[in-house]
Design a protein that fits this description.
By secondary structure, the chain is of the alpha/beta class. It is 45% helix and 11% strand. The chain is built from 20 helices and 13 strands. This is Light-independent protochlorophyllide reductase subunit B.
Length: 518
């Protein structure tokens, strides 16, 4: 563990919270001190849930360490059972409580409660949140699934599938489930159980009744899906339907597992038509940097290259459990894989590569904002604004439409670029003029002629390059459109440094432009 301002993943007990909070009839008793009790903030504030997460803390304090903290845990667990009457309970310790070694699972077994109790061994100092969610879901499935349940005969019924992986705090999981359920319905397939999101212990007990399993989010579902495959002989669909091409492959794999005709699935995405249109040409070879959880990052790289014509210049993920998959994808795109949970390392990579678009988490959004690069969020961890009230899936054909809209909107479009260049000397289009419909940057009673010199002076002071530029070079630099001006300045300064030029004049600026245009 390390002290940091930002983090991509919390400790593994946060992953357990995500699973417990997603389910119905499950309660999580967490042995934790004051300070580790932040589940309410995570789920009610960020995800905007209408109810509190089903988590009870022991909330021991420093003075309790000299007493019997084990008794304190049992008291909290007993009160939680009597108050909430859950169908099952999971128990574990936070990273701090792990150090005092009270053995919550053993304490709960000694209480002999009349419901299933699932102990969690989540090593906080060697594992993280995604692994914690996967291990928690696996233990729940392994404990609660009835091993005698098998699918009913297929005569007279539609095929049934389990959808595994969606959790609380998941990036667009709610909408993805709706979209994939609709897609399966068009193919004549019923969803038997969605888990953990919305599932109860009684639902988990019947997982064996499905004909096959779909692993929507491997970070959470893969271990449990493998167990179901081994225990019940259920085929597992592992293609993640993010993007138009992946959705078509997903349909083919589902159809093979269910024994149905894939032609029934309707293709409703506008993305392929747009990618073939003349309007898409301004996206061709746009340089994009991608970082997030492995599933979304790998899928985004494929969509960016194959369906939007971007050039992937950077690809990485923060969950090391999927490092092998990420490395394989990076090799396919011809880039160096970046597998790290250090946001400063990610920021350095973005600054060095100078992409024209960043696709990432909320951390990359902040990084891109500081660097002046357009950004779209594609993966957790996310901000409250990434839990929209509107329907906004990432998966399926409608998800492909959402990806297209979300990724293209931050970019300056071809016509905009042409107009900004055409009117770059007009006072109304100066960088500091602000939004014209709000009247920003205008002084009452002044004519355009009076405003322009002031605007020019502000622009010079705000954006004057580093010492060493001549006034003529500074003025020429400001003629470059704002969305590539930073890149032009960095390239010119790098060119001057490489050639030992102490002063950057017009000739240096033009020479650098010619050098990097080769």
């Amino acid at each position: 563990m390390q002290l940091t301002v930002w983090t991509y993943e919390g400790p593994p007990h946060v992953g357990a919270m995500r699973v417990a909070t997603a389910m119905e009839g499950v309660h999580y008793v967490l042995h934790a001190p004051q300070g580790d009790t932040y589940a309410d903030l995570l789920f009610t504030m960020i995800e905007r849930r209408a109810k509190r997460p089903p988590v009870t803390y022991t909330t021991f304090q420093a003075r309790d360490l000299g007493k019997d903290t084990a008794e304190l845990f049992q008291t909290a667990a007993r009160e939680a059972f009597e108050r909430y009457r859950p169908q099952a309970m999971i128990v574990g310790a936070s990273c701090t409580a792990e150090l005092i070694q009270d053995d919550p699972s053993g304490l709960m077994q000694a209480m002999q409660l009349p419901i299933p109790v699932i102990p969690l061994e989540l090593p906080s100092y060697s594992r993280k949140e995604s692994w914690g969610a996967s291990e928690t879901f696996y233990q729940i499935v392994r404990t609660l699934a009835d091993r005698d349940v098998r699918p009913a005969p297929r005569e007279g019924r539609r095929p049934r599938a389990n959808l595994l992986g969606p959790t609380a705090l998941g990036f667009r999981h709610r909408d993805d489930v709706i979209e994939i359920t609709r897609l399966l319905d068009t193919m004549g397939i019923d969803v038997h159980c969605v888990a953990p999101l919305g599932a109860s212990p009684a639902d988990i007990a019947t997982l064996g009744a499905a004909d096959f399993t779909i692993s929507l989010y491997p970070e959470t579902a893969d271990t449990a899906a493998r167990w179901l495959e081994k225990t019940f002989g259920q085929p597992v669909v592992r293609t993640v339907p993010i993007g138009h091409g992946a959705t078509r492959e997903f349909i083919a794999e589902v159809a093979a597992a269910a024994g149905v005709d894939p032609a029934a699935a309707l293709d409703t995405s506008h993305l392929p038509w747009w990618s073939r249109s003349v309007d898409s040409t301004y996206l061709t070879a746009k340089r994009v940097f991608i970082f997030g959880d492995a599933t979304h990052a790998i899928a985004a790289a494929r969509v960016a290259r194959d369906e939007l014509g971007f050039a992937v210049v950077g690809l990485g993920c923060y969950n090391r459990e999927f490092a092998r998959d990420l490395r394989a994808a990076a090799a396919e795109h011809g880039v160096e894989p970046l597998i790290t949970d250090d946001y400063l390392e990610v920021e350095s990579a973005i600054a060095e590569l100078q992409p024209e678009l960043v696709l990432g988490t909320q951390m990359e959004r902040h990084i891109a904002k500081r660097l002046g690069i357009p950004c779209a969020v594609i993966s957790s961890p996310v901000h409250v604004q990434d839990f929209p009230a509107r329907y906004s899936p990432q998966m399926g054909f409608e998800g492909a439409n959402v990806l297209f809209d979300t990724w293209v909107h931050p970019l300056v479009m071809g016509l905009e670029e042409h107009l900004l260049t055409m009117f770059r000397d007009d006072f109304e289009f100066a960088d500091n003029a602000g939004a014209s419909h709000l009247g920003h940057g205008k002084v009452a009673g002044q004519t355009p002629a009076a405003v322009e010199p002031a605007a020019e002076q502000i622009l010079v002071e705000a954006e004057a390059p580093a010492t060493g530029w001549t006034p003529e070079a500074e003025r020429e630099l400001r003629k470059i459109p704002f969305f590539v001006r930073g890149k032009a300045r960095r390239n010119t300064e790098a060119y001057a440094a490489d050639h030992g030029l102490p002063t950057i004049g017009l000739d240096t600026l033009y020479d650098a432009k010619a050098h990097y245009a080769r």
